[in-house]
Please model this.
Amino acid sequence: MTRSPRRLPWGAMARLAGRRALFAGPVVLVVTFGVFAIAAASPFDPVKAYAGTAALGADQETLDRLRDNLGVDQSFVVRWWDWLTAALTGDLGHSPVMRQPVAEVIGERLVWSALLCAVAFAVAVLVGTLLGVLAARRPGSMLDRAVTSLAYTLEAAPVFWIALLAVWLFALQWDVLPAGGLTDTASEQVTPGQVASHIVLPAGVLAVSQLPWFTLYVRQGVGDALAEDPVRGARARGIGEGTVLFGHALRSGLLPVLTLIGSRVPELITGALLVETVFSWPGIAAATVEAATAVDFPLLAALTVLATAAVLAGNLLADLLYGLFDPRVKLSEM
Amino acid sequence: MADVAAEKAEKTEKAKRTGRAGRAGQSERAAPAADAGNAEGAEQAGTPWRAHGTDRRSTRTLRLRVSAALLTLTVLAVLLVPPLAQLDQQAVDLAAKLQPPSWAHPFGTDDVGRDLLLRCVYGLRVSLLVGVAAALTATVVGTAVGATAGALGGWVDRSVMRVVDTISSVPHLLLGIFIVAMFRPGVWPVVISVALTHWLSTARIVRAEVLSLRSRPYIDAAVSGGASRWRVAVRHLLPGVLPQAALAAVLMVPHAMWHESALSFLGLGLPTHTASLGNLIQEARGSLLAGQWWPTLFPGLFIIVPTLAVAGLAGAWRERVNPRRRSELML
Model:
């Protein structure tokens, strides 16, 4: 199947991205403000969090001085503005839990989270599409029912539960894969081989948790496409079943799925939060949970804003793909 | 191809009216089928690509019955076991610790010899209670906000929906984690954090429904008959949107339960003395690493079964309300 290469509408894409950025900027701003407002409304006291158990025996004068030094006697709006202006210069504050600057924590860990999510997402898309096509081929067949039932069960199962059972089966019973971490405990440095064997379980579990959604959508899309005229025409011309399925039905059935991929970012983040925690994967999602458990406000605030930015980027990607792949939609009209 | 294009236009129009709920917003985790139904329902109409008529109907009835039976069983167990069975879920029996499933303990025992079946039923009770409370709160808030936005329209509508879009840009679980971390674990922070992240979808559904009802002749008739804005909203619009809101609320309960379990599992949810299913799985991690699988397996099943039962019932209900839109829930 050869097609003339279509020139990408860079101008329209850039304009759409620009328009979305105009919307995304205020959203991120409002989210940072909301984060500070929630913190201000909560019983959380930064001074006591900073001083830890030492605050129990300290007299009021010391606490007041500490309050003054930390700058938390001001209203949260002032603190929000200070944080925001510092953040724009790249200073996101200092994380008490990780004992290093927040920007450094994110810089070190982002790459591992991105790797995990990318591998899991690729596996989920590939396997999910394959299962969806197989299920749509004969609607109502045993295979279709098995795949659909499995998809709904996996959709209902909590991902951390699947992760724990996977650890039990693969790491403890069969002893074929490591139970967690990025490398073996004995190893000094991070080698690609070590990472490859340690990523299998977390990425597999994350993929399994994202897979039902793709399977169900592809099944629906391909099932609908199989009943449409182009497929009937292809069959009438005597084209093989495989070509009809993957060349014709999948191509039109995949369209709604492709365009919705970007909007899966929130679910991916949710899954990563739980999977990274179970497998002690040193990514930012696990750091988020650690920050939350220890009420590490600077880190938690930065990561919440980062996740919001990721979701907005995903939405933009969804819109771009939608405009690029669906010839009925014009990017300039979105 | 012409009618496909027409439907496409109609869909885009609808998407615009509903604040582009489908793509711009966060697609709900528990309802891909509902999404698929909404997105593809129009095109699917009139193309019966599943030809097994009688066969399909019998599976549907079977699915309805199984779902209803499972849900009834769950609710009965949660309501009746604690008052009727004079058994203490906290009864420690170190002589019988970590026993695999047997007749005496169908689900086995945990690391201090407590019966896991009883623990699971009590855990489900807590989880379900939190789920129902959160879903009710979220539905009331979502209906109020969505109906106000839809009925008033104009700048109120635009700014309210902007707020909804903004909140849904933060991943639900992350927002929940943030709220609970700031307000410290407890029952109320969990309920509030789950409710606060779940009213968005209800608000969108209710708003879209109100917008479609607003242009109906009977509303025009009420307005020209001199009904006040308030009367139109309460007597004419609200009854129309309540079924949708109720369905959303029912579907939200398993989702809220899932949310609560995730928070509890991360150690940010309910305190351990009111153990929910998430707490049970969290506590079981130690014995799992020692090779005992049953304390982990069964609480998870207790989350899956009610979720599937509710999904099955909702699918059957949707088919009855709108038979054109054959539900994808084939279990």
